User: Which sequence fits this backbone?
């Protein structure tokens, strides 16, 4: 994608819609898809990571979210919207 500034600006596609996953778009625009802050990339290490009973659950949820959005392309959205 290429960003265009100013009036009428936004993002322009450099590739075909089939080549963009919704996951890649969301990661680019939102910075990540982590359900909780401690599992996001670049998050400060939590002192409870080694003993956190919930961390495996959050890691699994993050994987499910990532897999879900990486399986949908921009072309799928355009097709489903018609």
Assistant:
């Amino acid at each position: 994608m290429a960003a265009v500034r100013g009036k009428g600006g936004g993002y322009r596609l450099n590739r075909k819609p089939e080549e963009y996953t919704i996951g890649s778009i969301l990661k680019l625009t939102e910075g990540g898809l982590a359900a909780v802050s401690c599992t996001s990339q670049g998050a400060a290490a939590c002192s409870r990571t080694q003993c956190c009973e919930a961390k495996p659950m959050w890691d699994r949820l993050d994987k499910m979210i990532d897999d879900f959005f990486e399986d949908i392309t921009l072309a799928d959205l355009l097709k489903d919207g018609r």
